[in-house]
């Protein structure tokens, strides 16, 4: 590239880049996507690739970097994860065609796609078992709504969503990208940052509700949206903005979206962002899936089933009929274990139909997506045929959606090979005997030499010249050659009517025939012709599949439903979970409840989980347990496990307990664990207070609230007063079910003053200065916190432990004497000594068991003596 004037290619690049100033431009040049100027500098740093130079522009070096086209997806994923958007400019014509226009003509290029976090479809860019949502939030005349779609599966939903509900909904959906109207970015930036979504502003026209209605009707090919439901202006605006953005990013080739489903407010259990984080429903606090509830309960066999499970856990139902229907399916599958295993065996062979169909619709698919549709529908048919006649409604209705695809399955079976290539341009995916012309063309391509040999044999028989040969060179192509001794015969009738003279050499005469010329053309073009035939069949098969897209999507949904039901039944059978009773009461009675994630972790360590009961049974008054006990005793686990049991039950799952009776929970709130928010200047205590305020301001009488250590981040009396007032507010105002854990033992007196409050404690046993955690919850109150003993277990130096004991005893004595001794002691504490006093080293105190063991010589013991010694040690342990 030279100095100015700008070269034609660079002029083209700058013109395309001007249309997409906010995206990195992948500019196709042969086998590479090249990037220039600031795009190259940013991409080279983000991708850790070499930054080079190519010519000059306006007197400055042009920075350049590039990535191979065949490996572009990996680089795209890296850029998207680092917050970039990428515009892909492809070559729209063959370079040879461009040269026909002149030596300096530039290959025509166009942006064919704008890649953003919410518009990914490739398997390599997506997590198979998670949705990738694109969301849009709109506000119209005081009303607001949220729409979201996963273009990789076709899912499309909308719901009313006031601004106060936006963060909880974003936490539920975890979209990759949120679209908002220009001018709203600053207002929504904090909310969107908390959700982890990329924020994308769109022009006001994108959210015009009148244009949106027409846009949606065009997308779905209908005259009115009334067949899909009743949508207000805000909902139309949100959906219209989303579809307009898809039209922009997909360059007019819209994805195959299902008709929009409207979610009504109150249809699902409300769970705010802090509660989702505290309960680790779909992601662990440390990040990632491992350690979450989702990871602990996921036994689905298909990607679609896994995505459905995540949706159910994120949005537990508040519809008793829906919950009962799901539990009835699990009950049936538990009783029919052999049937369940048969279904799961077929489900393991079901590919991701949703994503295969979506890629095909966007013209980003290939032959393997065709075979994925075939394999999925084949297994769907097998499952439908095996469905038992007495199956409950959920399974029976799903089985109906799996039928009716026989003609398409038969077409795909006949047309496609078992293991096709990834790309249609590679050919070889159409089965033999499907198209006679294709078979013949392939024979020419693959067996051209044999075809020529057979023709040569025919000509020898026709002429009687055994030395006749069919040969080939780059000048004449295929030709027939004989010696000059046979020339006169070949040039005379009747052979001259068939054999056309082409060339005579010193000892040879060369001929051709019309069939040989035709055969030569066919052999030389056979490979291209075979590929063109296959591409034609690919287009036909694609059209046949897309014509059945609605029933195929329905089958995919049904397979996911069956997969989730069989997976949850398998989980319940393996883990000994019980069927919960969920009704319209205010009951909350759990017998021998367990924490599914903790139990799983303990099992790996060879340890048994200690189950506990929880009975919030008051009907006419609020039901609150005030839980006391030391740190590390299991209070937080107990709180969380009961919240998760309620969540699982309303998601339609069996629960980890011996029995469970749960009155419908409308809202789930959790304030457990300590965290800060330094980015917004919030201390741990401020975060705690903000989250507590959200609970007290929102919880209704059907809410379930779990609170842990309210007020611990401030001074003792401040913290106690806040915790005291919070508990009273839950009891008197919110009037909800709650588990309230605290170290403030003074609060146990509230059980005698508030009718709905009961004391409970996590029991421990103290032995020779150490504390043993029994992890058992029982009615009553703890007498102290055992903080010093827990500190010993944590490994604090013995000098610190002994000093803490001295200070604790003095403080407790001062408290008993009315506080004067406490003040004197604090005044005397040696906080500022230059040389801290050394605590005396205490000789370890030996036990009777240790003394007895010192006298034992194991090698000298007989089996009888060893057994007697074991009984003796057991008796000493009782002392």
UniProtKB/TrEMBL annotation:
SMART domains: MUTSac, MUTSd. The keyword DNA damage applies. ATP binds at residues 629-636. GO terms for molecular function: ATP binding; ATP-dependent DNA damage sensor activity; damaged DNA binding; mismatched DNA binding. GO terms for biological process: mismatch repair. PANTHER family: DNA MISMATCH REPAIR PROTEIN MSH1, MITOCHONDRIAL (PTHR11361:SF34), DNA MISMATCH REPAIR PROTEIN MUTS FAMILY MEMBER (PTHR11361). This is DNA mismatch repair protein MutS. It comes from Rhodobacter ferrooxidans. The gene is mutS.
């Amino acid at each position: 590239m030279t100095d100015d004037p700008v070269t034609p290619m660079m002029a083209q690049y700058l013109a395309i880049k001007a249309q997409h100033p906010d995206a990195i431009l992948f500019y196709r040049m042969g086998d590479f996507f090249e990037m220039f100027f600031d795009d190259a500098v940013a991409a080279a740093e983000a991708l850790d690739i070499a930054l080079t130079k190519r010519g000059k522009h306006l007197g400055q070096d042009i920075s350049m970097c590039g990535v191979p086209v065949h490996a572009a997806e990996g680089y795209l994923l890296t850029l998207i994860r680092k917050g970039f958007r990428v515009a892909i400019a492809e070559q729209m014509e063959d370079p040879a065609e461009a040269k026909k226009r002149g030596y300096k003509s530039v290959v025509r290029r166009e942006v064919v796609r704008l890649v953003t976090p919410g518009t990914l479809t490739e398997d390599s860019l997506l997590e198979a078992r998670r949705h990738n949502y694109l969301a849009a939030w709109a506000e119209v005349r005081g009303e607001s709504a949220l729409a979201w779609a996963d273009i990789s599966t076709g899912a499309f939903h909308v719901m009313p969503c006031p601004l106060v509900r936006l963060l909880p909904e974003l936490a539920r959906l975890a979209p990759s990208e949120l679209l908002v109207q220009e001018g709203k970015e600053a207002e929504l930036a904090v909310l969107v940052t908390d959700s982890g979504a990329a924020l994308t502003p769109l022009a006001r026209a994108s959210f015009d509700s009148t244009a949106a209605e027409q846009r949606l009707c065009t997308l779905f090919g209908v005259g009115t949206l009334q067949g899909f439901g009743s949508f207000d202006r805000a909902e139309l605006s949100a959906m219209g903005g989303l579809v307009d953005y898809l039209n922009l990013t997909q360059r007019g080739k819209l994805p195959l979206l299902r008709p929009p489903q409207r979610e009504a407010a109150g249809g699902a259990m409300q769970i705010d962002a802090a509660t989702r984080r505290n309960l680790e429903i779909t992601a662990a606090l440390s990040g990632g899936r491992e350690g979450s509830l989702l990871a602990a309960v996921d036994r689905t066999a298909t990607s679609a089933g896994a995505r459905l499970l995540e949706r159910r856990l994120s949005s537990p139902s508040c519809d008793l009929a829906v919950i009962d229907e799901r539990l009835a399916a699990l009950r049936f599958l538990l009783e029919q274990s052999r049937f369940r295993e048969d279904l799961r065996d077929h489900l393991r062979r079901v590919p991701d139909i949703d994503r295969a169909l979506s890629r095909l619709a966007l013209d980003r698919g290939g032959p393997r997506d065709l075979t994925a549709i075939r394999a999925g529908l084949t297994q769907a048919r097998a499952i439908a045929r095996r469905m038992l006649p007495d199956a409950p409604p959920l399974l029976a209705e799903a089985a109906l959606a799996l039928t009716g695809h026989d003609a398409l399955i038969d077409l795909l079976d006949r047309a496609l090979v078992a293991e096709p290539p990834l790309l249609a341009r590679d050919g070889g995916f159409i089965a033999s005997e499907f198209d006679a012309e294709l078979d013949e063309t392939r024979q020419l391509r693959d067996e051209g030499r044999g075809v020529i040999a057979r023709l040569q044999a025919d000509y020898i028989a026709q002429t009687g010249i055994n030395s006749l040969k069919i040969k080939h060179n780059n000048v004449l192509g295929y030709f027939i050659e004989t010696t000059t001794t046979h020339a006169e015969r070949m040039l005379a009738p009747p052979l001259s009517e068939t054999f056309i003279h082409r060339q005579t050499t010193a000892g040879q005469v060369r001929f051709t025939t019309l069939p040989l010329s035709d055969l030569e053309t066919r052999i030389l073009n056979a490979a291209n012709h075979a590929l063109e035939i296959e591409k034609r069949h690919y287009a036909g098969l694609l059209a046949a599949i897309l014509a059945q897209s609605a029933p195929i999507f329905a089958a995919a949904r049904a397979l996911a439903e069956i997969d989730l039901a069989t997976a949850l039944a398998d989980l319940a059978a393996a883990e000994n979970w019980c069927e919960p009773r969920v009704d319209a009461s205010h009951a909350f009675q759990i017998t021998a409840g367990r924490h599914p994630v903790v139990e799983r972790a303990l099992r790996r360590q060879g340890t048994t989980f200690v189950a506990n009961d929880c009975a919030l049974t008051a009907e006419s008054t609020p039901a609150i347990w005030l839980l006391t006990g030391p740190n590390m005793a299991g209070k937080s686990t107990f709180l969380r496990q009961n919240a998760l049991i309620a969540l699982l039950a309303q998601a339609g799952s069996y629960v980890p307990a011996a029995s469970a009776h749960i009155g419908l929970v409308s809202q789930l709130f959790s304030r457990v664990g300590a965290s800060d928010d330094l980015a917004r200047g919030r201390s741990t205590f401020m975060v705690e207070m903000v989250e507590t305020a959200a609970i007290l301001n929102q919880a209704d009488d059907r809410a379930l609230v779990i609170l842990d250590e309210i007020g611990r981040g401030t001074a003792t009396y401040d913290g106690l007063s806040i915790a005291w007032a919070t508990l009273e507010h839950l009891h008197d105002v919110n009037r909800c079910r709650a588990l309230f854990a605290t170290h403030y033992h003074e609060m146990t007196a509230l059980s005698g003053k508030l009718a709905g409050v009961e004391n409970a404690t996590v029991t421990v046993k103290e032995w020779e200065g150490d504390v043993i955690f029994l992890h058992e919850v029982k009615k009553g109150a703890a007498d102290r916190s055992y903080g010093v003993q827990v500190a010993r277990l944590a490994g604090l130096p013995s000098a610190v432990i002994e000093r803490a004991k001295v200070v604790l005893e003095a403080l407790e004595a001062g408290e008993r004497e009315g506080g004067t001794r406490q003040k004197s002691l604090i005044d005397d504490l040696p906080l500022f000594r230059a040389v801290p006093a050394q605590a005396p080293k205490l000789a370890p105190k030996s036990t009777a068991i240790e003394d007895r063991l010192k006298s034992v010589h194991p090698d000298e013991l007989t089996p009888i003596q060893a057994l007697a010694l074991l009984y003796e040690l057991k008796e000493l342990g009782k002392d």
